[in-house]
Amino acid sequence: MMLSVQSLQAAYGASRVLFDINLDVAEGECVTLLGRNGMGKTTTIRCIMGLLSANGGAVSFVGAPILGRPPERIARLGIGLVPEGRQIFPTLTVHENLVATAANRTARANRWTEKRVCSLFPRLEERPNQWANTLSGGEQQMLAIGRALMTNPRLLILDEATEGLAPLIRAEIWHCLETLRKEGLSILIVDKNINVLRRLADRHVVIEKGATVWRGTNADLERDWEKVHGWLGV
C-alpha cells in the first residue's frame, strides 16, 4: 500500500474537524476523496502532508509512519502536492517555478524534467519567462501540477484539481491526469466532477462531517449511487 490513513482525527484549536478518516491508495492506483464543502477534505490532505498536526490516528507512506513528521521530510519521501488555490510562486517565472522544486530523490528512471513537463503542458513551453502571477488561472494550475511533478513523486495529491477553471481548461487538466494515470503514477484527487472521476479513478472515498462514510470501486459507486449522491449533493 502506497498511502494508508487510519482513524485520522484533527482540530483547529478547540474546533474538531476530523473524527474518523480512513482511506488508502495502492501503488499505481487513482483514488478520489469526495464530500461537500466543509466536510474535511482539505484538512485531511493537510494532515497527510504534515501541514496540520493530527490529534489521533495513523498515516503511513510505503509502510513507514509519517504522522508528526515535518512537511519537508514528508515531501522528500515522494509525495507531491498540488494545493487548493495553486499557490505557485507569483514573483518567479514559469521556468523558475519548475526548477525551484526539481529533484529526483526516489531515483525514477523516467524522471520528470522541465522539457517533459512542457510536453505535457504545451502552454507552459510557450511562456518560460512569463511571471507566474500573470498567467491565467488554468495556466497557473498547469504550473502547479508541473511543479509537483518536478519533485518526481511516487504519489501525487491534488486538492480541487479543476475548481474555477473554464471547461476547455478543465478538459486539458483531465487529459493530462489520464496520461499520468496510464503511466502508473499513484494519485489521490479531490474534485467535484464526479462524472470525470468515475472514468479516471479506481476507487472512491466519501467523507461526511469529518468521517469516512463510504468507500468503494466504480462498480460499487454505480450500485450505491443514490446513497452516495445524498452525501455529495447540496
For this entry, give a set of tags.
single chain; 234 residues; alpha/beta; Rossmann fold; six-stranded mixed beta sheet; 35% helix
Layout: helices, strands, pairs:
Blueprint lengths: L2 E10 L2 E11 L4 E5 L6 H8 L5 E8 L2 E2 L5 H6 L2 E4 L11 H7 L13 H7 L1 H4 L11 H13 L5 E5 L7 H16 L3 E5 L3 H7 L2 E6 L2 E7 H6 L1 H8 L2
Parallel strand pairs: 3-8, 3-9, 6-7, 7-8
Antiparallel strand pairs: 1-2, 1-4, 4-5, 9-10
Describe the structure.
With 234 residues, this protein is of the alpha/beta class. The protein has a single domain, classed as 3-Layer(aba) Sandwich (Rossmann fold). The protein is 35% helix and 27% strand. The strands form two sheets. Strands 6-7-8-3-9-10 form a six-stranded mixed β-sheet, with helices on both faces. The protein is globular and about 45 Å long. 41% of the residues are buried.
Summarize the structure.
The chain is an alpha/beta fold and 234 residues long.
Would you count the extended β strands for me?
10
Q: Into which percentage range does the β-strand content fall?
A: 25-35%
Could you give the order of strands across the largest sheet?
Answer: 6-7-8-3-9-10
Number of helices: 10
